[in-house]
Amino acid sequence: MSGQHKHDDAWRKSSFSGGQTNCVEFRRTPDGVEVRNSKRPDAGTVAYTDSEWKAFIAGVKNGEFDI
Q: Rounded to whole angstroms, how far apart are CA atoms 33 and 46?
């Protein structure tokens, strides 16, 4: 994720969800990323800045959230 990102109305979820509805989805916004519960899409979203999202993705890739 580098450079400028355009707004993207398309919600995306991980290919690891296996088509389940019990997962989170995300989409790009002009200011960063929004995340929502795919099971309750009308319940609201949580917004993250680009730097917050990049830090989260880096942590995932580094295994910081592995149980």
A: 8
Cβ distance 55 to 65 under 8 Å? no
Measured CA to CA, the distance from residue 56 to residue 15 in angstroms comes to 18
Query: What is residue 41's predicted lDDT score, i.e. its pLDDT?
Result: 87
Considering only CA atoms, which of 44, 6, 4, 52 is closest in space to residue 28?
A: 6
Which residues, 6+ apart, have CB-to-CB distance to 32 below 8 Å? 47, 48, 49, 50, 52, 53
Place of tokens 């149980």: 67
Which DSSP category does 30 fall into? T
What pLDDT is attached to residue 19? 67
Nearest to 14 by CA among 57, 49, 52: 57
Query: pTM for this one?
Result: 0.72
